[in-house]
Amino acid sequence: MAKQVKPAITPVRADDYPEWYQQIIKASDLAEKSPVRGCMVIKPWGYALWENIVRGMDDMFKATGVKNAYFPLFIPLSFLEKEAEHVEGFAKECAVVTHHRLEKSDQGGLVPAGKLAEPLVVRPTSETIIGDSFAKWVSSYRDLPILINQWANVVRWEMRTRIFLRTSEFLWQEGHTAHATADEAVARTQMMLDVYARFVEEFLAIPVIRGRKTPSERFPGAVDTLCIEAMMQDRKALQAGTSHFLGQNFAKASGIRFQNAQEQEEFAWTTSWGSSTRLIGGLIMTHADDNGLVLPPRIASAHVVLLPIYRSDGDRDQVMAYTEKLASDLRGQIYHHRPVQVEIDTRDIGGARGWDWIKKGIPVRVEIGPKDIEKDALFVGRRDDDPKKKTSIPRARFLQDFTAMLDDIQQQLYDRALDFRERNTQPIDTRDAFDTYFTPRSQEKPEIHGGFALSHWCGDAQCERQIKDALNVTIRCIPLKNQQEDGPCVCCGRPSKERVVWAKAY
Amino acid sequence: MAKQVKPAITPVRADDYPEWYQQIIKASDLAEKSPVRGCMVIKPWGYALWENIVRGMDDMFKATGVKNAYFPLFIPLSFLEKEAEHVEGFAKECAVVTHHRLEKSDQGGLVPAGKLAEPLVVRPTSETIIGDSFAKWVSSYRDLPILINQWANVVRWEMRTRIFLRTSEFLWQEGHTAHATADEAVARTQMMLDVYARFVEEFLAIPVIRGRKTPSERFPGAVDTLCIEAMMQDRKALQAGTSHFLGQNFAKASGIRFQNAQEQEEFAWTTSWGSSTRLIGGLIMTHADDNGLVLPPRIASAHVVLLPIYRSDGDRDQVMAYTEKLASDLRGQIYHHRPVQVEIDTRDIGGARGWDWIKKGIPVRVEIGPKDIEKDALFVGRRDDDPKKKTSIPRARFLQDFTAMLDDIQQQLYDRALDFRERNTQPIDTRDAFDTYFTPRSQEKPEIHGGFALSHWCGDAQCERQIKDALNVTIRCIPLKNQQEDGPCVCCGRPSKERVVWAKAY
User: Fold this and answer.
1) Scanning every residue of chain B, which has its alpha carbon at the shortest distance from the alpha carbon of A73?
2) Is there a cis peptide before residue B18, judged by omega within 30 degrees of 0?
3) Domain residue ranges in chain B
4) How large is the ipTM?
């Protein structure tokens, strides 16, 4: 290992994980708090990540036949009330529009005026308003399936917010489909979970477990909720995407009826599935280190930064010409379906310049000085290496191997994350061992404990509740690819047929 | 001209333009009204147009150094009040969030609860909330310029709405920049107007006039508003994009200060510029005809539909194989920066199938039957031709010439629109002639009158007001490339130095 350097982020991960997370976001210039309670400002370096997520995921959706559309931001209160569990799940966190005008008050300030006959809820999710359209679009089995996705902002009025992970407004996609049979809808639910899993593993380099939520963790109104769960560096779980089989619940609530081939009227079977800017939080907490953000190349806001170095004006011209030519050669290359994105940083700020890009997590840094140019070589640093490790590489070879280098970084990051998860996942068979596993090991570093426990569960919600109350640990999912095995419930000892994934969670 | 066919849209353009417009949207399946007052549902065929607008425009923005970011949906009331003209301009049409929760009422229904200390306005535009961020981001002239764009939804509570043209919620982009000097901000205002003009002419095939708004038509709070104006088929004007020089008004309101190179503190100079889903309304009203929508290939939701024709199962296999191969060959081609988009329609609905695609405005239709396959030829119809005109073209030549055919359609549509505008634009020098020009020529067809009048204006807002009150005609813009010419104001006769563009407008 190269010589230790002082970490760029204070505190380091091991000392105060939540504060480290905030510092990473600040140091990498991804986003910031806004003056509006719980809402964030996503800055260009952060928004570029979202653009890349949108592009990558959108292509995958479309390849399965899904088309994009757009539905109203506002949902009439009466629509939300159509599905009882659904409204119950969202009523406590709804932003409500009650007026459509501002008027001068007697005191001179502006006050809301023009009261609406029916309050409008800013969409927390769109099942009910999209269901209303589906009901109009469907009359025969020939109109099915309908496969729709929407990229949109949604609002859930959260009391405790954290940038990207839990904000009052966030950006997301929500897919909504309607089918003639339950089997087809169940297959679509599974298919979209697979899309999420593939996207998160292949683009974000985050390994995930595909599973099913227990009834108490289901989406309000769903018959079945599938999910992908990832492990963050503090060993907590992050739900990175969910796909819901809604049965006929929402079709009945919205009146999505069709005539089948036998000319009988039936309710359709629907699904919905969503993922959000929360993925960026997951990206940070999977890969970032004590020197800042670490971006997997396939999703990175930019792939490489060129750092020209010169003292004299004569040097400057030569170095800049060489740099521009290199940038142009790199931009002509395609890496994983998009042209290579190159930044050139000519700021005169000394060593802070390189550190800035380390903190921003760019995969590759290239220093270009007069001596390098003499040798027609570049001085190259990789973000997955120690920051002090830089290697001189002949320009031609660098260009030839550049996309392979990006692939190698991508793979490294995935492998490290998978290794971390495996080292912090273990089968636990007794309640005592379970309690110990999830109890902080040190007063000073309360974050260091636990991980994923693979333990038996009898299927009773009471056991879930008891463990949640005692340890703040929940069942993240029942893995889809699970081995059948007899064992005792880790809570009550009653018989169970399979182990489930228990963890603390975001 | 080929044999007349009965038009697919009733009423035709000439009889009832507003109703024709609604019928076009319905027949082409672009969008529909929603149960939420004034909000629209953009259906997949319409949303694909928006996706193409976003992609095309976004590339052009980025080429000028602009980066995307995202700011909160909600604006605290106190922010909106910071700029007096600004809040005045938007207060009458604001959706106001006053509560953040729903609770069961005594009657059992849900009612708003959790009253907010300060009401939040759903953004009608984001100058004030983005200004707040800029104030944090800028401290030195070295931090300038800041060049930001946001793709977002906005809400303006309109009383009379029309799909795409005026809706309470719409999708748009809003660019916001901050500069160290007035000159640089003015140049950026002009640059973004040029981007809009190029985009609208090159992608949407809509010719535009670049101009400046009179003071009474400026954006609330702007020092100068530039615009592009297009002529619709009912001879009314549509404002298709605006670019505002905001001076230091918003910098003062938001406190965007910087130290200049002489270490003196100054307020920054800002701009903003926007375009919206309204462009889709302009697209419809420029190109659609009595048979439905007509889509310019560079923006079309898809470029070509393949219509396989067969009677027997044996025919079916052969025709489908031939069709799939053709689709694959077409999809391998690039037209104007994107892969050719191909639809295959196998519905068994007879002649209605071809008409469906004519109504949807797809640029090229290709019929493929056993007899065509024998000759290795295709039966091709172009949307810019009469619907009955179809031509047999050898497959190889069709493939070779396909993108050139698309370019030809694109050019045809632009040329027709330009010709229409020129035929309906005239210099008018007297108030009598002006009144006649803008007075309906027939009781039965009240839409048939006027166009653009190029008439002198003295510069007095009173004259504008008088003509608006009398004829509902306004100054659309003072063209940027204008000839200096002495003449009498068409309203009051006082001297004027140039002609301006007068018209009725959307």
Assistant:
1) B169
2) no
3) 17-74+125-287, 304-421, 425-503
4) 0.96
Class of B304-421 in CATH: alpha beta
* CATH number, span A24-75+124-287: 3.30.930.10
| Nearest C-alpha neighbor of B171 from the set B261, B64, B41, B285 | B41
Nearest Cα neighbor of A335 from A406, A412, A395, A411 is A406
Contact list in A for residue B136 (CB cut-off 8 A) is: 32
Report which of A237, A239, A226, A229 is spatially closest to residue A273, judged by C-alpha positions.
A226
- From first to last of the 506 residues of chain B, give the pLDDT tens digit: 445 568 889 888 988 999 999 999 999 999 999 999 999 999 999 999 999 999 999 999 999 999 999 999 999 999 998 888 888 889 999 999 999 999 998 888 899 999 999 999 999 999 999 999 999 999 999 999 999 999 999 999 988 999 999 999 999 999 999 999 999 999 999 999 999 999 999 999 999 999 999 999 999 999 999 999 999 999 999 999 999 999 999 999 999 999 999 999 999 999 999 999 999 999 999 999 999 999 999 999 999 999 999 988 889 999 999 999 999 999 999 999 999 999 999 998 888 999 999 999 999 999 999 999 999 999 999 999 999 999 999 999 999 999 999 999 999 999 999 999 999 999 999 999 999 999 987 766 666 678 999 999 999 999 999 999 999 999 999 999 999 999 999 999 999 999 999 999 99
Residue to test with chain A: of B33, B42, B74, most A Cβ within 10 A: B74
Which of B72, B93, B97 is facing A97, going by the closest CB pair? B97
Distance CA B116, CA A94 (A): 12
Report the residue of B54, B82, B98 to disrupt the A interface, i.e. the one with the largest count of A CBs within 10 Å: B98
**What's the CATH class of domain A425-503?**
alpha beta
Provide the chain A residues 76-135 that lie in CB contact (below 8 A) with chain B.
76-77, 79-81, 87, 91-103, 109-112, 114, 119-122, 129, 132-133
**Whether A302 contacts chain B with CB within 8 A:** no
Report the candidate in B151, B182, B177, B201 with the shortest Cα–Cα distance to residue B421: B201
B contacts of A81 (beta carbons < 8 Å):
109-110
Q: What's domain B17-74+125-287's architecture?
A: 2-Layer Sandwich (3.30)
**CA–CA distances in Å: residue B433 to residues B231, B428, B436, B449, B455:** 20, 7, 5, 12, 11
